[in-house]
Amino acid sequence: MAHYDLIVVGSGPGGYEAAHKAGQLGKTVLVIEKDALGGVCTNWGCIPTKSLLNSAKLYEHALHSQAKGVITTGVSFDLAAAMKWKQDTIDTLQKGIAYLMKSSDVDVLFGEAIGNRDGSITVDGISYTGEAIIIATGSSSAMIPIEGAQLDHVVTSTEILSVERLPEHLAVIGGGVIGVEFAALFSTLGVKVSVIEMTDEIIPMADKEIAKLLRREMKSVDFYLSARVVKIDEKHVFFIDKDGKERTVESDLVLMSTGRMPNTALAEQLGVFIDRRAVVVDDVLKTNIPNVYAIGDVNGKSLLAHSASRMAEVAVNNLYGDTSQRMRYDAIPWAVYTQPEVAGCGLSESEALRRGYNVKCASRQMRSNGRFLAENGKKASGLCTVVVDGETRVILGIQMIGPYASEMIHAAAVIIESELRVDEIAEVVFPHPSVSEVVKETILSLK
Amino acid sequence: MAHYDLIVVGSGPGGYEAAHKAGQLGKTVLVIEKDALGGVCTNWGCIPTKSLLNSAKLYEHALHSQAKGVITTGVSFDLAAAMKWKQDTIDTLQKGIAYLMKSSDVDVLFGEAIGNRDGSITVDGISYTGEAIIIATGSSSAMIPIEGAQLDHVVTSTEILSVERLPEHLAVIGGGVIGVEFAALFSTLGVKVSVIEMTDEIIPMADKEIAKLLRREMKSVDFYLSARVVKIDEKHVFFIDKDGKERTVESDLVLMSTGRMPNTALAEQLGVFIDRRAVVVDDVLKTNIPNVYAIGDVNGKSLLAHSASRMAEVAVNNLYGDTSQRMRYDAIPWAVYTQPEVAGCGLSESEALRRGYNVKCASRQMRSNGRFLAENGKKASGLCTVVVDGETRVILGIQMIGPYASEMIHAAAVIIESELRVDEIAEVVFPHPSVSEVVKETILSLK
Questions:
Q1: Which residues constitute the domain of residue B383?
Q2: Looking at the domain assignment, is residue B280 inside a domain?
Q3: How many CB atoms lie within 10 A of CB B109?
Q4: Predicted pLDDT of residue B427
Q5: How far apart are alpha carbons B271 and B169 in whole angstroms?
Q6: Is residue B209 part of a domain?
Q7: B329 in a structural domain
Q8: Which of B302, B386, B407, B420 should one mutate to test binding to chain A, selecting the residue with the greatest count of A CBs within 10 A?
Q9: Which run of H or of E encompasses A89?
Q10: Pairing with B10, which of A37, B173, B302, B443 sits 20 to 30 Å away (CA)?
Q11: What is the mean pLDDT of residues A257-278?
């Protein structure tokens, strides 16, 4: 029976990062992957969606840039080419991960990992043992059990990434990040899109004002909030709207984006404690079983690729000597790659109030920002909001809707993680002309 | 004779910011502007160039996005439309500044300010006195005195912003930021562009490696380095190349982008001390005359719009009570809006070595970054470099070439101004997938 210092199950952004780091430390490491290197993020999540959303953005720009001087006589979208570009991106990244594993002497094994009660793991009838195990098995799309959910044209975010032709009407069930990004993608490509969301607003972690602005900017999408889907048939989705009225939307393709469920099978086989359908971990990602850690979506703490990578760092550091690091969840950025983009980091106003802070808030329109205007015009909307602790003047949260939000938000992570104060940011010089200036202006307005 | 608490001469990003801030503090303020509100930045600098560069970027995307699925026919560039969009942006921002002045009760006077030895300032024969004066008169394009420089087709960055038709051959004399941005703009629009630079590399503040990458990415531009222009005629620019050989390039338009000279006339009239053609100021922007400050390009310290705005904050704070702030120049970001963009903040490796630091450096290609690949493909180049103090592990400088650099670099300003260390950034979570991840990876490689 092959023995390793560390067995990592799952090669997503948590798993491959953990394996690579441990390998670099000279440990013998085995990674077990049941499907494709990179996991959901690389193959059916972050990467393919961003590739296609970028294609859609370029398509929209090609269609609508006359006022800025770009004239075209014909613009069309070649879905097969966009899909090929997406696949090339995935292939390149997969190769990169394979190379990373090789360069840090990590063994990679493809197959389904079965956990045994003695702590060993079996793949295709062969068992492996590890001094330590990191469970990084990720999550899967959750399906809601409604009539018609099993129909062929009802898909998850995985299958929809391989459609070969555009539908006429797409119905998106669930207005979280995944649902909204696909709604943006398909509506930009000319598909009539309806989003049906159970709660009273899309993008739950966004400030209501920002989520509302996003809905307003996604003009061609019909949003139904506080709406409950009851049935799907070949051509329609039936739902109860916010007023209790029965409604239908047409749809020849239905995306079920109603959340994700941790893949806990392996953890359960190993006897790890599960609560509320996720593996229970402490702040260094330890489970109840000695030397068994669980990182990424499977522990349900923060279902984001970069959270998983950070958990990998904390878990491996903890395993191999640096026990000073703890997983913190208050400065993890998030981004929605719609047009405009939405991003945030830290506490929202309501969360800060709930935690008892003496909250001070400010928000600024981007409309007076030079670069924003130069690139988007005065009718475009963009907004930045900042939440501050009124006592210490430490910045607790930053959110924004506008261009480049996804590439600006890491600065918010630096600010919030470092507990910087309003007066400290006041002395930082931001580049002109850049949309980022609005962040400083919003913070300055709290001075 | 009208008397004010503060007279500000010049309404660029230094002047209008100073006037606005003082007005908000309840001071009586007069701003004198000889031309247009917003100064060079708004009218003939940052803003119009970024507007046109954005149009050029959209044009290039419309031409070359087939591999990503965007098929176009009949793509052409409508220069008049792009110019109109640019002018609309300027008009909107000018109105914004006018509104800002009004909202903070600042008087605005248009005309040329003449300084008098008694400290008063005369405009159109009427004199004004101020308890304090802020000189924010900016700078002008420097012309090098060579044969042919007076010809009609030899222009500065001001006139070139109003060309009504594209030239066939543009020769750019000077490969600094201004020259390179115009080279990028015109070459993207199909003009054959030559850049003739006196030193051995373009973009003086950039790391050599980054500047070289930018030249490589600007494939259609001919760069002549270590080259000295000797003569211009109706159709050519004559220069001595790096090997001492006489050469010519064709050009029906010549851009003279050979630096900028502080506008010191007013300062001289007021009797302010000038050295090396710039107004001498201390670290709170005071000149040798009590209550006379000089901010922005006129003091020659840092010829950037955002430096001027920061100087405005420091000068006004110092004038009206908060004497704790000092002008620092080590964490001022800069950006070049080419494709790809280039940006930096803090010390370059050579500057850090010159100052005696035990320098540690790292650089990372962007090629393994998911978003970079998804949007640019594996042949595109992008690079991030980081300079660290080997003793304290404080991050001293960050530079990058790649998409979104101009919107990412404010995070570097936060990091460097706050003197954050490698180990602190190691615990910050950066969003995935974003190009910004490369910054963390580069820093981590110094761990």
A1: 334-444
A2: yes
A3: 19
A4: 95
A5: 45
A6: yes
A7: no
A8: B407
A9: helix A79-103
A10: B173
A11: 97
* Distance between CA atoms of residues B399 and B350, nearest Å: 13
Q: Give the residue ranges of DSSP H helices in B34-173.
A: 39-44, 46-63, 79-103
Q: Are strands A383-389 and A74-77 parallel, antiparallel or unpaired?
A: unpaired
Residue B386 lies in a domain: yes
Is-contact B75 B205, C-beta < 8 A? no
- Are B239 and B284 in a shared domain? no
Residue of A nearest to B67 (CA): A81
Nearest beta carbon to residue B307 from set A13, A92, A429: A429
Say if residue B1's pLDDT is above 80.
Answer: no
pLDDT digits (tens, 9 = 90+) for B83-130: 999 999 999 999 999 999 999 999 999 999 999 999 999 999 999 999
User: What does the DSSP 8-state code read for residue B159?
Assistant: G
The CATH code of the domain that includes B368 is: 3.30.390.30
Clarify whether residues A137 and A196 are in a common domain: no
Is the predicted pLDDT of residue B371 greater than 90, yes or no? yes
B417 contacts A428? CB cut-off 8 A: yes
* DSSP label of B394: B
- In A, which residues are within 8 Å of B42 by CB distance? 370
Establish if A72 touches chain B: CB-CB under 8 angstroms. yes
Number of structural domains found in chain B: 3
B302 interfaces chain A, CB cutoff of 8 Å: no
Q: How many CB pairs under 8 A join A and B?
A: 290
Using a cut of 0.90, tell me whether the model's pTM lies above it.
yes
A410 chain-B contacts, CB cut-off 8 A: 408, 411, 428, 430-431, 434, 436-437, 439-440
Mean of the per-residue pLDDT values for chain B? Answer: 97
On the question of pLDDT at A85 being above 80, the answer is yes
> Are residue A212 and residue A267 in the same domain, yes or no?
no
Per the CB < 8 Å rule, is B77 touching A92? no
Residue B270 and residue B127 share a domain: yes
Residue to test with chain A: of B65, B83, B326, B443, most A Cβ within 10 A: B65
Residues B362 and B412 in one domain: yes
Write out the catalytic residue numbers of B.
432
Last residue of a domain, one of B296, B319, B342: B319
ipTM above 0.90, yes or no: yes
Q: Do B342 and B405 touch, CB atoms closer than 8 A?
A: yes
